[in-house]
Amino acid sequence: MKKIRDLIAPLIFILISGLYLSGCQAIAPATSTDATASEESSADAGPRYSPDRVDVRGTITQREYNQGQMLILVEGVTDPRYSRFSRAVVLVTPVTQIVGLDGRTISLSELQNGQQVAILFRGRFRESVSGFSAQAVARKIWLEPLGGY
After folding, report:
1. Residues 104-149: pLDDT tens digits?
2. Count of domains in the chain?
3. Number of alpha carbons in the 13 Å side-chain half-sphere of residue 133
4. pLDDT digits (tens, 9 = 90+) for 36-64
5. Surface-to-core class of residue 138, CB atoms within 10 Å of its CB (0-12 exposed, 13-18 middle, 19+ buried)
6. Residue range(s) defining the domain that contains residue 80
7. Cα 76 to the chain's mean position, in Å?
8. The pTM of the whole model exceeds 0.90
9. What is the per-residue pLDDT for 125?
10. SS3 string of the chain?
11. Residue 27: inside a domain
């Protein structure tokens, strides 16, 4: 019994120490001067509510409204750090959540050509025959400030 107690005490100490140290700050403070030019330009453009990496990020080049749904063509970012696809045909349904520039939900009718958006797909996507990278249904759309990426 004493041998088990002698083995458990150091193990508990190591476990508690590990938990304590894992709470340390792993990210550089905001005052760091290691910011890249893209981070600085996005800070100047205004707040961005979308995640860093989405399924498609770019500009709405075409849109077609039909019976409560909208089909949009998005072309944009080719950098894989920010977007899985550079172009996509996306179906926006009434259940798609659309977040405006101020972080509030907006309606489907407020999507316009020329707006910059970031989109997460719902479920699976298909490779497009029309020359666009993907065809999918949108789960969530964020409007982004112009020049944000």
Report:
1. 999 998 999 999 999 999 987 777 665 558 889 999 999 998 876 5
2. 1
3. 15
4. 444 444 444 567 777 888 989 999 999 99
5. buried
6. 47-144
7. 14
8. no
9. 74
10. CHHHHHHHHHHHHHHHHHHHHHCCCCCCCCCCCCCCHHHHHHHHHCCCCCCCCEEEEEEEEEEEEECCEEEEEEEECCCCCCEEECEEEEEECCCCEEECCCCCECCHHHCCCCCEEEEEEEEEEEECCCCCCEEEEEEEEEEECCCCC
11. no
Q: Does residue 35 lie within any of the structural domains?
A: no
Give the CATH number for residue 136. Answer: 2.40.50.140
- pLDDT (tens digit, 9 = 90+) per residue, 26-35? 444 444 444 4
Tell me, what's the pLDDT at 77?
Answer: 75
Q: Is residue 76 part of a domain?
A: yes
* 4 belongs to a structural domain: no
Burial pattern 16-51, b for ≥16 Cβ within 10 A else e, equals: eeeeeeeeeeeeeeeeeeeeeeeeeebeeeeebebe
Question: Other CB atoms closer than 10 Å to residue 145's CB: what's the count?
Answer: 14
Place of tokens 């977007």: 83
